[in-house]
Amino acid sequence: MKGKLVFCAFALLSLSLAQSVHPQGYPAKPVMLMVAYPAGGATDIGARILASIAEKELGQPIVVINKAGAGGQVGFMELSKQKPDGYYIGFINLPSLNTMVLDPQFKATFTMDSFTPIINQVLDPGIVYVRGDSPYKEFKDLIADAKKRPGELKGGATGILGDDHLAMLMMEKAAGVKFRMVVFEGDAPHITAILGGQIDFGFLNVAGQVPKVKGGQLRALTVMDKERIKFLPDVPTTVELGYPTVISSSTRGIAGPKGMPEPIVKKLQDVFKKAIEHPQHRERMDQTGLAIKIMVGDEYQKYIMDFHEKLKPLVEQARKDK
């Protein structure tokens, strides 16, 4: 009799635990979606577009919260420490996350294994911008002036050893120039500095800046990719301009803390995939120049780890060059 009671108690506990993580019981309250950068930046714009569509499918509000600081490290650290119950998820930005793990100077309290990859939303090529009235009409003008004045031209990058920073280091090496780098916490203050004339140019991404280029506030000099982008088809690539080694992009995807139950992960993957594929999402993303790249589950995990391995020698070289 005692054995049967123990068995029944164990069965009831197992059933209770299963129900607590079963997607039918999730979510029972709003889900927090963390962005590790200030409001108004490219990641934030994409997150808010996606959240507004996905929450209708999820059946609960998806609340975007900004946890900016240290080039994204504050937000990534907070995400890694959350309960893996699906109520606090967030965007992870590559290569920013990778370099924080790879470079000891960041003293990161998380590793690449501290997160549960859910789905990727954006793959955003790098681009070089100047103010709309800048004397640099073409990228060659910027490089020519940089060669005349080594270390004098001020160039912006978002985050230490993020994709912008690494792209600028790659361009210095490829073009034989030296810039004066200025690092910003997010895209918004970076763009403000370009428009305000505090810096001469900026290494950024396509996302969020297309309206400013079309409106004449910014001028795009080159896209750091092999192919031209549909949002700015007249802007030449670095490959076209003779810099085939300068290829740069940023991916932005959603992850949770390590240990999330598979049923909840699957629920979120289904919800966000439907939202990303929704015509309204695609239309609004196109309007801001955010290039969609869906990667889910194992595919996304493999991309993250393969990318991590490719970055190791580049980050090591960047540390030596400091």
Description:
The chain is α/β, with parallel strands linked by helices. It has helices at 2-21, 42-58, 73-80, 96-102, 139-148, 163-175, 187-196, 210-214, 262-277, 279-288, 297-321; strands at 31-35, 62-66, 88-94, 115-131, 154-158, 180-184, 201-205, 218-224, 249-257, 292-296. The chain has two domains: 29-124 and 250-321, D-Maltodextrin-Binding Protein, domain 2 (3-Layer(aba) Sandwich); 125-224, D-Maltodextrin-Binding Protein, domain 2 (3-Layer(aba) Sandwich). It contains eleven helices and ten strands. β1, α2 (42-58) and β2 (62-66) form a beta-alpha-beta unit. α2 (42-58) crosses α9 (262-277) and α2 runs antiparallel to α10. It is globular and about 65 Å long. The protein starts with a helix and ends with a helix. 44% of the residues are buried.
Q: What is the secondary structure topology, with strand pairs?
A:
Blueprint: H1 2-21, E1 31-35, H2 42-58, E2 62-66, H3 73-80, E3 88-94, H4 96-102, E4 115-131, H5 139-148, E5 154-158, H6 163-175, E6 180-184, H7 187-196, E7 201-205, H8 210-214, E8 218-224, E9 249-257, H9 262-277, H10 279-288, E10 292-296, H11 297-321
Parallel strand pairs: 1-2, 1-3, 5-6, 5-7
Antiparallel strand pairs: 3-9, 4-7, 4-8, 4-9, 4-10
Helix pairs in contact: 2-9, 2-10
